[in-house]
Amino acid sequence: MCGIIGYVGHQDCVPILLDGLRRLEYRGYDSAGIACWTGDDIAIRRAQGKLIHLQRVIAPENLHSNLGMGHTRWATHGRPSEQNAHPHRWASVALVHNGIIENYLSLRHALEARGHHFDSETDTEIVAHLIGERVEEGLDLHTAVRAVLQQIQGSYALVVLSAKEPDRLVIARQQSPLVIALGPGESFAASDIPAILGHSREVLFLEDGESAILTAAGVSLFDPEGTPIERQPRRINWDPISAEKQGYKHFMLKEIHEQPDKIIDTLRGRILLDQGDVNLDGLHLPHPIQRILLVACGTSYHAALVGKFLIEALARIPVDVDVASEFRYRTPLLGPQQLFVAISQSGETADTLAALRLAKEMGAFTLSVCNVMEASIPRAAHDTLYTRADPEIGVASTKAFTTQLTALLLLAVHLGRRNDALAAATAKSLLVDLRRVPALIDNVLAQQEHLRAIAKDFMHARSFLYLGRGVNYPIALEGALKLKEISYIHAEGYPAGEMKHGPIALIDEDLPVVVIAPRGHTFDKVASNLQEVRARGGRVIAIVTADDPHLRDPDIRRIEIPDLPDHLQPLLTIIPLQMLAYHIADLKGTDIDQPRNLAKSVTVE
After folding, report:
1. Residue closest to 434 by CA, chosen among 256, 270, 255
2. Can you tell me the distance from the alpha carbon of 298 to that of 304, in angstroms, rounded to the nearest whole number?
3. Which DSSP symbol is given to 499?
4. Which pLDDT does position 242 carry in this prediction?
5. Any idea what the CATH number is for the domain that residue 150 is in?
6. Looking at the 3D structure of the chain, how many domains does it have?
7. Could you tell me if residue 221 is inside a domain?
8. Less packed terminus of the chain by CB within 10 Å, N or C?
């Protein structure tokens, strides 16, 4: 999720671009850069790290321009570096890009066969080469961009500048946002409204497949076939802080609603449906693997617990799960033909990093599941599976968790297919259902008012109990953690079958009990546990399959989810628990995005 800003008009664009990037820096902070038309050529300035480093590069120069673009990067292809920073250029064409080009390797190989040489490791640079070729052949910039987009598979938001047409920017989008702002004698483009809100409130939203030409005189829009279209601008009345959150009250709520898109990003280019298999970015894991150890902290630990169920069920390899802070303080047994998997959103979690280094010393093959390219843990591991969740601002993890679950499910399929434990037909059926999940999450998110009503009824409770079985037991733990983190209400997650071994003593009419009870092979057992709670006066909130005729007691508050196979249920059952925690915390007025005493990344032991 990179940040993009473009400008053409009568003002000096350099301060406009830098201010826009500052307002977009939450979208990416690995590197930043700008490209401007100076009257003679395109000047490109880039720097690794946060925006301040780019500002230091530009400060000594007398750089002025009326046409330019800027980019702040969240790395997906190529490590964070000045070399991989945007903008990228070939011949007369420079551009910035947000998204993932799935077929970049085949396009790059074709370009290399035609004599092209590349300066970066990114998928974006190949687009500059392709468009540059067409411009050098004599096509105008807009036609060249549209021609190249026919070759590209994946997602993109593009802003393109050519030294041969230095009065315009050409932009295009597919599954990555782009917004246009209009002012007197000037036009703006940006990946998010905050970048342009201080200059204009009249905006146009580019739709998938569309492109546009921006000049100082105005904007021309084109549909996917290249036919000109008309669209009336909308007036945006958000304040700047709300704009950063895209109108959501909190970053956490925004990130909850981003989960369908982020799961799509994590799956993009990795499902080989015809083969009933997955492509995990060229992972080279040892074979055979005798045992797997998953190690993590906090929310990532709960993802690891789900991963254990998935890998053992689909790949039939024994899996252990460790809390990273405990791993080094026992006498772990690791060695060759054993796979150590470190799971971390930030890639900087100190305990997880220390555990990984120890596992590596002991001879295990180390794999990281991480959201941040070239963070400490991916750099230390033998190999990495990236989750592509983009920056997560809210301290309480949401989209990072569901993309970790998605990545671990793909890993389980990969391992199962490698060791012949998972038939191609079974894998294909599972992957077909997995591709349905983002749309099904949207269905759950549509119940926001119902969830808020439940939250209002239970917001004054002093304690909660969460129960789940099988693959949904870790979801009970994660649901309880979310509530604790942001509402400051005590909560415990338990295996439902263990309720009689202690927690049942707590149940009375004051204790809300959240029971995760979707249809599946453990449903009858969970339903029995639920009735034991009801018999003792407990107040039940039940997550159930939408068309399930059971558990329709009027005293049970039902939250319905679509039907899915057991292995995929955690991707749905967690969503209402995130929303319930959010609404309870919002009603209580706590600091949701920055809860007391918590940090986003725990970089000390």
Report:
1. 270
2. 10
3. G
4. 61
5. 3.60.20.10
6. 3
7. yes
8. C
| Least confident span in 31-35, 121-125, 328-332, 366-370 | 328-332
Check whether residue 404 and residue 255 sit in a common domain. Answer: yes
pLDDT band, residue 484 (cuts 50/70/90): very high
Tokens of 356: 């990984």
Query: 524 lies in which domain range?
Result: 447-588
Task: Specify whether 139 is located in the same domain as 30.
Answer: yes
Q: How much is the pLDDT for 604?
A: 41
Nearest to 149 by CA among 223, 66, 85: 223
Paired tokens of 124: 């974006």
- pLDDT, one tens digit per residue, over 14-57 is 999 999 998 887 667 789 999 999 999 999 999 998 899 999 99
More confident residue, 408 or 522: 408
DSSP secondary-structure letter at 459?
Answer: T
Active site residues: 2, 600
603 — pLDDT class (breaks 50, 70, 90): very low
CA 255, 356, 386, 375: dihedral to nearest 10 degrees?
Answer: 80
CA distances from 178 to 5, 157, 181, 196, 384 (A): 9, 6, 10, 12, 30
What amino acid occupies position 506? L
Q: Are residues 116 and 213 in the same domain?
A: yes
User: What single string gives the DSSP state of each residue in 128-180?
Assistant: HHHHHHHHHTT--HHHHHHHHHTT--B-EEEEEEETTSTT-EEEEEEBS--EE
Domain end among 244, 278, 304: 244
599 falls within a domain: no
* Pairwise pLDDT comparison (574 vs 549), residue with the higher score: 574
Same domain, residue pair 428 and 470: no
Which tokens sit at 109?
């190989």
Q: Return all residues near 85 (Cβ < 8 A) that are at least 6 apart.
A: 30, 31, 32, 33, 46, 47, 48, 71, 73
Strands (E), 264-349: 271-272, 277-278, 291-296, 319-323, 338-344
The domain that contains 391 carries what CATH number? 3.40.50.10490
Among 393, 422, 443, which residue terminates a domain? 443
> Mind giving me the DSSP string for 266-281?
HHTTTEEGGGTEE--T
End-to-end CA distance of the chain: give it in Å, rounded.
30
Same domain, 460 and 434: no
